[in-house]
Design a protein that fits this description.
The complex is a heterodimer of chains A (478) and B (469). Chain A is of the alpha/beta class. Chain A has 12 helices and 24 strands. Chain A is globular, with a radius of gyration of 22 Å. Chain B has 469 residues and is of the alpha/beta class. In chain B, strand 2 and strand 3 form a beta hairpin. In chain B, helix 2 packs antiparallel against helix 6, helix 7 packs across helix 8 and helix 8 runs antiparallel to helix 9. The longest helix of chain B has 17 residues. The chains are: A alpha/beta (478), B alpha/beta (469). At the A-B interface, strand 21, strand 23 and strand 24 of A face strand 20 and strand 21 of B.
Chain lengths: 478, 469
Amino acid sequence: MSSGIEALVNREYAYGFVTDIETDTVPAGLNEGIIRLISAKKNEPEFMLEWRLKAYRRWLTMKEPHWGNVKYPPIDYNSLVYYSAPKSVKPLQSLDEVDPELLRTYQKLGISLNEQKMLAGVAVDAIFDSVSVGTTMREELGKLGIIFCSFGEAVQTHPELIEKYLGTVVPHSDNFFAALNAAVFSDGSFAYVPKGVKCPMELSTYFRINSANTGQFERTLIIADEGASVSYLEGCTAPKRDENQLHAAVVELIALDNATVKYSTVQNWYSGDAEGKGGIYNFVTKRGKCAGVNSKISWTQVETGSAITWKYPSVILQGDNSVGEFYSVAVVNKKQQADTGTKMIHIGKNTRSTIVSKGISAGEGNNSYRGLVRVLPKATGARNYTQCDSMLIGNKCGANTFPYIEVQNNTATLEHEASTSKIGEDQIFYCKQRGVSAEHAVSMIVSGFCREVFKELPMEFAVEAQQLLGITLEGSVG
Amino acid sequence: MIDTATRKGTRDNAAVGKNGADPVNLRAPGSIEAYRADFERQPAAPEWLRSLRAEGMARFEALGFPTKNEDWHFTSVAPIAEQSFRTAMINKAGVSSEGSTAGMVAAADLRRFTFDQPTWHTLVFVNGEFSENLSSYAGLGEKVRVNSLAKAIHSGVGRPERHLGKIAVFDNHAFTALNTAFIRDGAFVELQADAVVDQPIHLIFVAEGQGEAVSHPRNLIVAAQNSRASIIESYICVRDNLYFTNAVTEISLGEGAHIDHYKIQLESEKSFHVGTTQIRQARDSQLHSFSYAVGGSLARTNIYTSLDGDAATCTLNGLYLTDGVQHIDNQTSIEHIAPNCPSHEVYKGVLDGRSHGVFNGKVYVHPEAQKTDGKQSNNNLLLSPSARVDTKPQLEIFADDVKCTHGATVGRLDEVAMFYLNSRGIGRESARTLLTYAFAADVLETIELKPLREQLERLVLARFAGSES
């Protein structure tokens, strides 16, 4: 590795800062009292409290899973603070009422709400720690009957929708982290697109983790009613911290007959320093259900941050002719670990799924693809195509592939392909010979490697993702 | 071996599924105690073997029967764990005299398994015990020594203790540990430097199939530098009964040694078979392995090789055919320790009835193993709507200058190909046979030993032609 490259690898996290705002937190620890307190603070109806408590009691009986190909010190769940909200939060009428300190934070991240509102045509539901602070473009969406608000608000204004759909895709008992989330989640986003409506703009949320020692437990629920379609963007950056922070979010997507949901993520949380200290634990449960016929759910993710990423955005293909897609780029550098992939559960007839996963390992990172494709006996004519490619940069990193393919129907057709390769010296030489620096050559080659995934991203994200990838990998090849 | 046993699969996790039997108490103390009782009753042995056996027994008791970990994700061993098998050989008042069991198996019974090759060197083991009468292995040459392991242990010839248990480690492999606890007999093949065996060495393991017996054949093949041989292991039965074969073969390949290893598993449809072949390869050595698995109600074949020297190569191919309610599991592992090693692997499965096929292929590349070239593929053909297949081709790579690919497919017979044949006057049944055979023949063609290839091709064709209904 050349020294110029070393310098780039060791570049500090550009978004590492802490915003000093008074926060409203509950005491550290977890018990039924805390859950009641969170529920009361959020002024939730009875059914929500009961659901939380049910989840909590279930969680107590569960064991933290350790089958993932990741290593981390034990988490003390009783030392975490389960609720933190900026003090200034009151029901807000406009962005002007938002704490200027918060707005400055967003500006530092380059996601000025005003700017986005005017220029990008993106309605942004920004989350600062746990409570949503500003929602834009509400009226425009309102005219079409689209509900897009914070989860907490939706519980107040549309409890019937929450009661009907919450936990139908990821039940409170699904897994250890999902149960924990169900018990203590503080806020998140909610979107409902009514029958036959095509959402005219990309819905977007920016997550931030602030406030030391606050586990972030977001819960997102997106419902596309019959014939509706929606595209949702999620992006993340987090300030620098020395202590590991647990993030156990849950995302549920529901697509009814002929509906389409597209969910895109760019994740760039703090990944820890060169020693692997600090950084976010990203243990997320994301799942979509193609409940109706001809429905479609598509996941696209670009994972460059977090000390540990452990997530499997999945699709349950229940409706006949439904389609599931998963496009992923996961990059690990320094001591990052990622165990990510997807699950495609084929239940309905003629269901189709596509998986394209690109893993890039550099530094001392360890990257695993773990994917399950299951065809149940009634899924006549099911079809799956899986491609997972890995690229290794340096010999201290690892790339693993763990595909699980389970077929119980002989009309199914499945293909799985995986390859591992490196950036060839001859490729770099070729570029350098033509006046392209090694740095740019790597960036070009990596962009080409990830192209199939990037082209699935909405425009704004595609640009950001390319840049992120560049920053994460800069200098890792010499 | 690669340590995956610590990575437990749990039921509530996000990516790993919920399949297979309900969790039963696989430690089944009853059956483990039965093994312990038989272990205590084993006849006297040299000190080194006693301690090796004791280590195996202790490890087996500590591990218990495998539960749902990564290595046993799709296969439940409950049927084996729940059954109390009596150990063959031991319950006949300790020591059996030569020929007492062999008397129950006649040379005529074996004819259909010997591939009509009288010139092959044949060693026959009945219930895991060597049968001199049924074997013929004269004229092997000076540089080759073939013996029954029991004799070698007794006489000390070839000092098997130098290798036994060194290649087939059993820290995390319960069945290998169990086999080690009962090491008694099997084949011991020694090839000195530059030895070349022209005719294949055929090891036939006959389950005589009376009573619910378990046998633990243990084979040791030591090939010194630049030696060359073809070795066939056949696992067969003369009666269609319930029994359990738990075999382990250790192979050591010296520099430049070349071994073709064939495992032909034709156990009874009621039986259980767990067989592990573990190989260590030195520099420039070559291994060609072929596994043909059709027998057993629950059968598991493990082929593990480690490429421990520069430019060692291995080819692991296999074919598994299942029908009825059979469950056949194939696990392979290729561990690239040294640089510049190519490895190739093709496994194919044809599954019919309500059977269940499993493939799990692991390629592990150590950080030092630069310039590794690994190719792995697994193709499955589902002939019936209730057949099931689970496949998990797995790559774990820690070196950057490598080329590794794997692929897996699952599908049924191609309707277009079928139509094409029909339109040219070939009936549906014949077309089906033809297409199925063509699928399987693809991998059979990689067998270098011609008589064996032709014989297996005939067997496979007859099977598919007969399965039409």
